[in-house]
Design goal:
Organism: Nelumbo nucifera (Sacred lotus)
GO cellular component, one term: plasma membrane
CATH topology of the largest domain: Leucine-rich repeat, LRR (right-handed beta-alpha superhelix)
Pfam families: LRR_8
Number of domains: 2
InterPro entries: Leu-rich_rpt, LRR_dom_sf
Strand order of the largest sheet: 2-4-6-7
CATH class of the largest domain: Alpha Beta
Helix content: 10-25%
Distance between the termini: 82 Å
Radius of gyration: 30 Å
Protein name: Leucine-rich repeat receptor protein kinase EMS1-like
Shape: elongated
Length: 177
Amino acid sequence: MELVKILTIFTCVDLSNNRFQGEIPVVIGNLTSLHILNLSHNALIGQIPSSMGNLIQLESLDLSQNQLSGEMIPGDDQFLTFTEASFKGNEGLCGLPLSTKCTDAKGNPLSTFQHTEPESFLAIDMMFMWNGLMVGFGLGAGMVISFLLFSVKDRKWLFSPHFLRSDFVITVLQEAL
């Protein structure tokens, strides 16, 4: 019997302690609704597939006590949220969030992923901040102007040449209150 399609709506998958052998299937990255994944205490080998970076809703991950090796998925912030205990017992794994640094065949350290926020995100944050300030200022000014226009019964002052005089504006505001 051949499995034609795997359901992608699973939210929790626990396949621990099953003596599974081989590599973690790449298609596991298609389970985008997954919140909990436990593949601990098996005989899984090889690298963690980069497709697991698609599991953005993943809250709990346990890949401990396998024989996984290689560098953690570089550039994937999702794996930085898990503790070292999630990968314990995989002597060949290296890179963040593990304390084991990755090295090449000669023992030289590899350039590992440094978690930094890209400048484009900072620019977007600043843009939203300024947009929010401008919208807030516009709404506040609009409310003050609306109050002045609609609360004063005699609106002739609006067309008066003395409109810009501060004592006149203060008098109008006092009358409105």
